[in-house]
Predict the 3D structure of the following.
Amino acid sequence: MTSQDDADARDARDVVGVLRRWEDSGAVWRVLGADGERLVVGLWTCTGGEVVERVESDDPALARFVAGRASSEEPVPDVGPGTAAARPDAPR
């Protein structure tokens, strides 16, 4: 694994952490677009009226976390083990 691969892996984990913290604080994230496997996610204010930041990643961890949803306002799909909905903090 190259140092760039290590940096990319850290960035991807951080993106999921950022989205979780954002959501836990009552703010909203929304998928702004996808280019192949790369997702672009907007971090919106708590009122949902303004984009504060954009994050992007092509790491599968982000795709699993998003689980096909357009935003954090959509429920996590109820699916089997090993999927995004199986994460411990997912609503059941």
